[in-house]
Design a protein that fits this description.
By secondary structure, the protein is mainly α. Helix content is 86%, strand content 0%. The longest helix has 50 residues.
Length: 266
């Protein structure tokens, strides 16, 4: 079936995984229990919408920015540069998945400590998760960089130009991964505290403003594709700086309580 078969396989796997989780949840097989009564309350829906909508908006911005970025690469640098970007991302998915794992763990533990009325412990958990994500992703990035060309040849065979682009992009992604560790860990901690609005701002400034903005500039200047690949570093530097500033400010500690109070007043 070619590419259509690959897309169908991905869709079926996600649908099956979601169905399994739904069945486990309704049969009380998860830590978060299924409750039949008391969930259909207006205030609960408003609270969920208040926290969930910014996260939805962040994902929309991410997908729009990602599509624009790939369109610019494909239109100005051709299919080989486009393929190299996607292969490079797949090669480094292991490190990225590890970072997202720390993000989920940090989000859960920060939320638990805030719920236990221990904000100082929540702060420590956030920073500890951040350092663990940075160190682990840096180690994996080093390993992947060492084997960048063999991995690229495994994916691409003997297409030397695409392999060259892939190796270049792999080096850039490896330099970005420690910064990505900061982004996923701190943004996860903020979401665990209910501060889902600020990550939207950081994503917009980094992805739309920095990455897509610089990509437009570099393509207009006619620079090699490696410069466009490098915009990903600028993207995550901007996000990391904004997220660290927000976390240090401590304003996220009272987001949920303030939201709940405002909703109750309404």
């Amino acid at each position: 079936m070619g590419p259509a078969g690959s897309a169908l396989a991905m869709s079926l796997s996600l649908a099956l995984g979601g169905l399994i989780l739904l069945i486990m949840w309704m049969r009380q097989g998860l830590i978060v229990k299924y409750i039949k009564d008391g969930w259909n309350e207006r205030l609960r829906y408003r609270h969920l919408f208040s926290i969930g909508f910014p996260a939805l908006l962040e994902q929309v911005l991410f997908q729009v920015g990602f599509v624009v970025f790939l369109m610019l690469i494909g239109n100005y640098y051709g299919t080989k540069a486009f393929a190299a970007y996607n292969v490079g991302v797949n090669m480094l998915n292991v490190a990225m998945v590890m970072g997202f794992g720390f993000s989920i763990a940090g989000s859960t533990l920060v939320g638990q400590n805030l719920g236990a009325d221990d904000p100082e412990a929540a702060v420590r958990i956030g920073w500890r998760t951040c350092w663990m994500a940075v160190i682990s992703m840096s180690v994996l990035a080093l390993v992947i960089v060492i084997f960048a060309e063999p991995f690229a040849r495994f994916f691409l065979g003997k297409d030397d130009l695409t392999i060259k682009y892939t190796v270049q992009f792999t080096y850039i992604l490896a330099a970005m991964l420690p910064i990505l560790g900061i982004d996923v860990a701190i943004s996860g901690a903020l979401r665990g505290a209910g501060d889902t609005r600020f990550p939207v701002l950081s994503t917009f400034c980094g992805l739309i403003g920095m990455r897509c903005g610089l990509t437009l500039l570099f393509t207009w200047m006619g620079l090699p594709v490696v410069w466009v690949y490098g915009t990903i570093i600028g993207d995550f530097v901007v996000r990391g700086v904004l997220l660290v500033w927000r976390y240090q400010s401590g304003r996220w500690k009272k987001v949920i309580s303030n939201e709940a109070l405002n909703l109750e007043r309404q």
